Amino acid sequence: MSVIFKHSKTGKNTVRLPELPADIAMEIPEMYLNDGLDLVDVSEVDIVRHYTRLSRMNFGVDTGMYPLGSCTMKYNPKINEDIASLPGFLNIHPLCGNDLSQGALRVMFELNQYLSEITGMARFSLAPAAGAHGELAGVMIIKKYFEMRGEKRTVILIPDSAHGTNPASVAMCGLTVREVPSTPEGDVDINALAGMLDSSVAAMMLTSPNTLGLFDRNILRISELLHKNGSLFYGDGANLNAVVGTLRMSDLGFDIIHVNLHKTFSTPHGGGGPGSGPVGVSAELEKFLPVPLIERDEDGYRLEQDSPDSIGRIHSFYGNFLIILRAYAYIRSLGGEGLRDVSRTAVLNANYCMSRLRDDFHLPVKRTCMHEFVLSDKDLPNGVTTNDIGKRLLDHGFHAPTVYFPLLIPGAMMIEPTETESMENLDAFIDVMKGIKKEIIENPDAVKNAPLTTPVKRVDAVTAARKPVLRWEE
Amino acid sequence: MSVIFKHSKTGKNTVRLPELPADIAMEIPEMYLNDGLDLVDVSEVDIVRHYTRLSRMNFGVDTGMYPLGSCTMKYNPKINEDIASLPGFLNIHPLCGNDLSQGALRVMFELNQYLSEITGMARFSLAPAAGAHGELAGVMIIKKYFEMRGEKRTVILIPDSAHGTNPASVAMCGLTVREVPSTPEGDVDINALAGMLDSSVAAMMLTSPNTLGLFDRNILRISELLHKNGSLFYGDGANLNAVVGTLRMSDLGFDIIHVNLHKTFSTPHGGGGPGSGPVGVSAELEKFLPVPLIERDEDGYRLEQDSPDSIGRIHSFYGNFLIILRAYAYIRSLGGEGLRDVSRTAVLNANYCMSRLRDDFHLPVKRTCMHEFVLSDKDLPNGVTTNDIGKRLLDHGFHAPTVYFPLLIPGAMMIEPTETESMENLDAFIDVMKGIKKEIIENPDAVKNAPLTTPVKRVDAVTAARKPVLRWEE
Amino acid sequence: MYTSITESDKKSMLKSIGAGSVDELFADIPASILLKKPLDLPAALSEMALFEHMKSVERSNAAPISLLGAGAYRHYIPAVVNHLAGRSEFYTAYTPYQPEVSQGTLTAIFEFQTMMCRLTGLDVANASMYDGATALAESIIMALRSNNRKKVVVSDAVHPNYREVIMTYCGAAGYECVFVASSGGVTAAADIERAIDSSTGAVAVQNPNFFGCIEDIAAVAEVAHAHNAAAIMSVLEPHSLALLKKPGALGIDIVCGEAQGFGNPIGFGGPMLGFIAAKNDYMRKIPGRLVGKTTDDDGREAYVLTLQTREQHIRRDRATSNICTNEGLCALRAVIYLSYYGNKLRDLALYNHKNAVYVKNLLIGKGFTPVFTSPFFNEFVVHFDNMASVYEKFRRNGVVPGLLLGDYYPELDDCLLVSATECLGTGEIEHMMNILEKI
Amino acid sequence: MYTSITESDKKSMLKSIGAGSVDELFADIPASILLKKPLDLPAALSEMALFEHMKSVERSNAAPISLLGAGAYRHYIPAVVNHLAGRSEFYTAYTPYQPEVSQGTLTAIFEFQTMMCRLTGLDVANASMYDGATALAESIIMALRSNNRKKVVVSDAVHPNYREVIMTYCGAAGYECVFVASSGGVTAAADIERAIDSSTGAVAVQNPNFFGCIEDIAAVAEVAHAHNAAAIMSVLEPHSLALLKKPGALGIDIVCGEAQGFGNPIGFGGPMLGFIAAKNDYMRKIPGRLVGKTTDDDGREAYVLTLQTREQHIRRDRATSNICTNEGLCALRAVIYLSYYGNKLRDLALYNHKNAVYVKNLLIGKGFTPVFTSPFFNEFVVHFDNMASVYEKFRRNGVVPGLLLGDYYPELDDCLLVSATECLGTGEIEHMMNILEKI
Ligand SMILES: Cc1ncc(COP(=O)(O)O)c(C=O)c1O
Ligand SMILES: Cc1ncc(COP(=O)(O)O)c(C=O)c1O
Fold it and tell me: In a 10 Å sphere around its CB, with 0-12 CB exposed, 13-18 middle and 19+ buried, how is residue A465 labelled?
């Protein structure tokens, strides 16, 4: 049975509804009312079996190593799930007033402080519901900053290695993206950059470490060039896991950053969200942060809506509180030393895997990596591709790396083991990768036809896009 | 990786322990202390992955239909799990005193009343932790009853179809089991029974409906014979699901019964427990019930330890409270009508399956069944056995029936669909059974080599018993 | 604490790497910026101490009886929702990029899309948006991009926070928002029409609107279409969809909003569950993920992310939106919730309405006056002289009786927006009435 | 409510059966006893109403600060335990009769057996018993059956409830229990020896005993063995095993008891987690399920229920016990718990001991006197004149400071058995001391 609708039959649903306190007349005129629904009619047992079965068709961090580069698929501590299930957090209404929500406000206020301590940024807004949302807020701040200064700057520079959300966020603000090339060693081409800087450049967005898993060796120089040009420097902090506790993003010269709580701070990714992407700024830019802010005074914590230069509101309420809460708990369980250990172990694990796989697969940039590294399918025999390798990994109980990203490395395989994998797991992964390499040479079809042991075989995405079927029809 | 021990390596466990309030000296002399443990040294991630993986090697009611006869593997409502996770129930200490545990005592008191209403027995003890424990208490009551009357009766009659716990419970009380034969139609052989009754017979234990899934047509006569003989009549209520809300066990003449909350009242079986097997008695036998009892007066509910004729205490505390709680919630969610619907649907489902399978498999007793029915492997071609059929069912996502029980039907397959299976599921099960029948004829090896799609193939139980390895050794 | 590389592991790993120490791995970072001491954060806690700490923080939130709605609704969450969405294969997965090991998430999202289409009467629904406000903002942008116009006309009976968010988004994107005053608690089509000009590409209303009143959305659609503008309806209390006529059938082009009420807790306002459903014309313009039905190599039914050329990771600065991570797990919760109630969701919606009517009548009995006469779903506005003091009285007695509207609409001073769902029990209602007794 | 046979299903099913109505299916039951009207039970509740009801019942339990132990111990349960034991494949499975689809349960039980062997220093451990009391009763019966004797000598420092249970069991089975008075809080080997005669087949003590004191179990084993009797040790606070020498190494033949403290809630005293571990000699005599290691048809490691000829379903009246359903899920919780702490369980045990010492010293500071001088693990007995009134004072202030012993041991009137685990926090201890302040 594929979808829940297939279990549907009139009369199967025997759910009992609560009873009304009295006989009450309906007050909505007939003309507004529908005459019944066409959702589904199934039993509770059907539901439990169906979604249990679906869950078992999924791969998650709890089922195995998930080296999906740029996504930081680390272990999500169970205690944080329990904390986020406490009724006093689940049921608190965002409009109940400051006095009744001191606990929630405290969590948000303190997490904001922790993020400042961790990144060096003066202040954060926790409103962004994901990384891209944080970027959008960041670009809005950039735009507003120059508007207020009366400068007409409409260009945002973005390296060719950037994540797609960077240019997309810029476009949503009506600004223009200009792409900065990288050197063969994976740094920003600093000469090209220098040549692009003029009075139209509002800012540059840079992911640090970048999406090749490398720390840009010219980063302080880049920051200098930008600031000299009167431009702002935006840091995409999605890869913070590599440097958390080891350095502060502010020390790299960033004026604005966002961080992904659903990566570095271990909140589960939920099969696509919810996440949380706080945006943090330097002291000079604080006044532009989205409203509301959270303030503390003798009476306790309060929401502050009044911020005349703010870019405005960007969320129905205050952001993804229950995700924020998990990140808060995570930081409290690790402390400063623990966070430093995160980045050091993440970097150690990645370099270990790289050192053991570089002879088997093409390593486009041969440098010490940070928390992740990129291999490619260049020079593989028998027409085997990155996609094939990813699929074959699934057969062995590993998730695939991020594939074909970053775009500047053709056939990229971006591998991020994270710090929560043990050496045994890394070795198992490495052995499987080496085994696949052997298969590519000796029995390429085994790789090209993979996966064979997954709940479904290779899925036809082409037909799906060509003749889209986007909802179930009986 | 098979067992958690395989993940063990010195130093992997990084659990942080709480901190002591002060520097406190140890007061136990060295001579008593060990010098370290040899349990295991693994990380939290190891644990989560290992037990998640193990869970996925299990079949449960939530993964599919579980027609395991005599076990009543019905759906276990999720809300009852939530109720049994409320901290006020989880954390209440059994010795905290009546005034502080009124909620728990109320649940036990009221469930006792509900069970009385449902079965007609005057009173229950909820102390037995499982059905067999209830039986044991029941047999102790029988023994004590005759001791107090000064009668020396040492024989307990048990039909040949009985569950193994019945004779075993009798033996634990130092009494003697005598087996009563059944007629070919599955009733107790009433003539044989009459011939066995003498002054040594303390009681007869009868499962009703019996383990063939049949309602004994002579049951009132049996009860009459026993009582005329001065013997007691014990009802094994493990199969109450067939008649709950439809009749009262007391009306069958039983003086003592036990019921399995983990069957009829839907508490999950936990992969082997915990269960709960309350023992209920007629008014005359109340005074023998195990202590403590729960009483109610103007001050509320209280535990009563004082009961001079009681058989005594049978549990460290008061029984499996958290299971009792789930059964209580189940009864409150169904009410009288709902419980009646349980038995009627359970019986309908069983008869439907029987009607559709009787032409494909040997049906030893051809009568309307109750909540379950028994097929056998008699006359199957190509040497295929009941065991093979059970294994083949696993390949199709169904649990096997209870096999080779009851003992009086060679090659028995005892099928209990329960009321929570939909007609679609019953039909799917029937289709698979019919398909297996076809395979038995056309391709018997497919059945004999089954299962093929399960986490492991057929398991070698013979070697396990011959050379027992009962703990892990590196 | 969640790492498990032992000291001996570290040694052999460094050896394989060819590095003498972990510090060496950070050699690309200028020494000047490497932190010299650990971050100044509270000391690490044991799990037990952490849980105690968090429970004490939790307790500093109050747990009042709440009649607050206004975009975040308290509905009973059936036990199956937590149990099933709590299966870790669901919540520890990433976005389903590898369909062969993500059929669970993909199938569930496909079902969610289907159910949202069925509830709205529209053709395409996406896999979720951040929340109702950004769903509205992105719907407006989608509509304006589609017909290449610059202006959206929006009812002022749209949630004030939502209006702020669309101003933020439209402002940044260079679009103009024109607000139309409601009258008598609803938005007159004629008033909308007056605000429309040739540059208007979209009209947006909320239904039930911020006051809980039911709008005449058929008339709104008609007037929008008369000017070749898209008709957008935002819905914040999704249970209303189960009782009212399908907006798609009434001519609405885009229904967007908030589906938190379907099986998701309020959680201080987040995560929420934004969604967009639209007519087929928008299929290639809709923001966010879409799951499509297809087959695998063996020809078996399978699901996959599709039409990805709309999205940022392919289209970059020409994508339909920048959204990447969305609210997938909330959508999963919603689809389990919707399966649980199924077609009985209408009965539940009716229960909500009647419970609200019941509370309203009791309040009228206590001297409150209803402010609007238009029909409402499960939320309504009442007036009381010197409302602020009654409000404080309620709060002191553990009840938040609703939302004071004076801050949002000065003309609605002394007015209270009251929401009653199935969760508002008779005991709670009695308690409220007893408080009023003493006034 | 949990059925889903529709009216039309029913019709076609009855047709297939050849019956005219469901009533016909009950034709074998004498009409006289078929119930004519539904049972008189409270009306069925919706899930929401049920949950509200149960929460109100829950709230009528108090949630005091508790220093009660005495066989049921409050230990912090790491989050992983609930999450993993809450996987429904575990808890909705039956006893693992079909090993091919039960490797999860089987492997976990095998691990549990292993860990219990490692903690006790013994060879064989079973898959669980109902609770500590019945585990002791069945251990005694196992020992007496093995050496064909009739009498067991038991320390009176065994938990009073346990002593009652073994009397019930032994009485029914025809065995005799002789109790030996402890002195100074411990059981002297000489006193035990005096109670032994030629019919004595077993000696049983509890360690740490009911007073929390550590017994000299090596001496107990020696004296038992000198008379060819089995030495049985019951342990109720299983964390003590992590700190003290392995009883198996000290000569104990059978260790049985209660492992609830390993990851299981107190739950008003049930379900508990009884266990029995014993020397190899008892392998074929031990009650309950055993899981053994073997291979499948492909030669892969696999686990299976084994030595089933001991059990009731094969041996019937000659089985080693009547136990069938046990406490499997509690054993699963225990093994997850033990994996979580691993070898650090010793540190946790030490923490327990020290916290208890800390509390004891504070109480001494407040004028309480320790009753025994023997070393204790995490439970101890203190005396205070007119203890009852102090006790009431504590209770009125939300603290149950322990168990009054007068009811159980008249000579220990005004004595209190106090247990302190890692869960007793400094805040709680302070609160207690503040209460004493005011006495
Ligand atoms: C480098 C980078 N930037 C931005 C994002 C966008 O974050 P989100 O998916 O939370 O919107 C991601 C995540 O995929 C990323 O890897
Ligand atoms: C008929 C019958 N009697 C007794 C029992 C024993 O119940 P329990 O396993 O709860 O001890 C069972 C369960 O297997 C049974 O089916």
Answer: middle
